[in-house]
Design brief:
The chain is an alpha/beta fold. It is 45% helix and 21% strand. The chain has 13 helices and eleven strands. It has helices at 48-51, 56-75, 87-91, 95-109, 121-133, 174-180, 189-207, 222-232, 240-243, 250-262, 265-269, 282-300, 312-319, and strands at 6-13, 17-26, 31-41, 80-85, 117-118, 145-150, 155-160, 164-170, 217-221, 246-249, 304-307. The chain has a six-stranded mixed β-sheet, sandwiched between helices. A hairpin with a 4-residue loop joins strand 6 and strand 7. The two termini are 14 Å apart. The model has no long low-confidence stretch (mean pLDDT 91).
């Protein structure tokens, strides 16, 4: 690492997964080089929509992985760490127990306190936009961009070119839609219709703040979108380099979404690029992304969508450099 770089650790703890990025960042140019990037499915938000609390099992899984991440930040000599917690930690009544578990894990294993920040939907959107759009102009993708980050409990819609201009977080995500609607294997037409109704209402809500017309670059983020792209590309394994900044026609992506939504659980589990922790929820993720693509295509005439492997995690890292 050169003298003018700073090594940081970023943790993004969402409804379904927890992710770590340790990166070297040049604060002057905002260039980011991965040192380590990893993701585990911990399902922190499993059942929170129904019960209002994080379950004991989900809490233990997530805090065990937090301890692993804290130890890695120390081993890799990260000088600063920021831990951002999203939808499940906003919604749960026992979020304070989770916050204390994270704080003590980093105190013991990294050497200083790190308190998870339960960010607002607006800040989550801003971080996602910063992380996702860094490389787009250099690759010839013109703005304005609409960045759509599909999480487990919520989906963020963010619009801007060089900076964020409008953002809205809505309560549809792959875990929430699965738990609320998609109970049959594979989902029935009635279940799909009910979930689609929820998604369309959420897109209407987002579009009241974040205009869909005039968008030139539609950018999708997070595990559902990257998995759908891997399926559309028919990859023999999950390959971030092949997925990142891929631009695929709207028709090809919506077809891939329909295929994933219509598969049985066993058929999805056999896909070589699908993380085992996403088998149960990728159908709902595909349903959300399909409707977003269709609605943006109708409103703005975009013919393709871009997939980014860089997202809120990169934005968190940049924010502390």
């Amino acid at each position: 690492m050169s003298d003018h770089h700073v090594r940081v650790g970023a943790v993004d703890c969402g409804t379904n997964s927890i992710r770590l990025l340790v990166a070297d960042i040049d604060p002057a140019t905002r260039s980011l080089v991965d040192v380590r990037r990893r993701m585990e499915i911990v399902r922190l938000g499993h059942g929170v929509d129904r019960t209002g609390v994080i379950s004991d099992e989900s809490m233990k899984r997530t805090l065990d992985m937090t301890r692993t991440y804290a130890a890695e930040c120390r081993q890799l000599r990260a000088s600063r760490v920021r831990f951002v917690a999203t939808s499940a930690s906003r919604d749960a009544r026992n979020a304070a127990t989770f916050v204390e578990g994270v704080r003590s894990a980093f105190q013991e294993l990294w050497g200083a306190e790190v308190v998870p920040e339960v960010v607002s939907g607006d800040e989550e959107a801003s971080l996602s936009f910063s992380g996702a759009t860094g490389g787009l102009a250099a690759h010839g993708v013109a703005g304005p961009y609409l960045v759509v980050d599909i999480g487990g409990g919520s989906t963020e819609f963010v619009r801007g070119t060089s900076h964020l201009e409008a953002a809205r977080s809505v309560d549809v995500g792959c875990v929430r839609m699965t738990e609320r609607h998609l109970h049959t294997d594979p989902p029935t037409p009635d279940e799909v219709a009910a979930a689609t109704g929820d998604v369309d209402r959420a897109i209407d809500e987002a579009a009241a703040t974040v205009p869909l017309s005039g968008v030139r670059g539609l950018v999708g983020l997070a595990g559902s979108v990257t998995t759908i792209t891997a399926h559309a590309l028919r990859l023999p394994r999950y390959d971030p380099a092949a997925i990142h900044l891929s631009q695929l026609p709207v028709e090809r992506l919506t077809q891939a979404c329909g295929e994933l939504l219509g598969m049985t659980r066993a058929e999805r589990a056999a896909l070589p690029y699908l993380h085992p922790g996403r088998v149960d929820v990728i159908g709902a993720g595909a349903l959300v992304w399909r409707r977003v693509i269709q609605r943006v295509s109708e409103a703005a005439g975009v013919a393709e969508a871009i997939t980014s492997e860089h997202d809120i995690l990169d934005g968190i890292a940049l924010s502390i450099a």
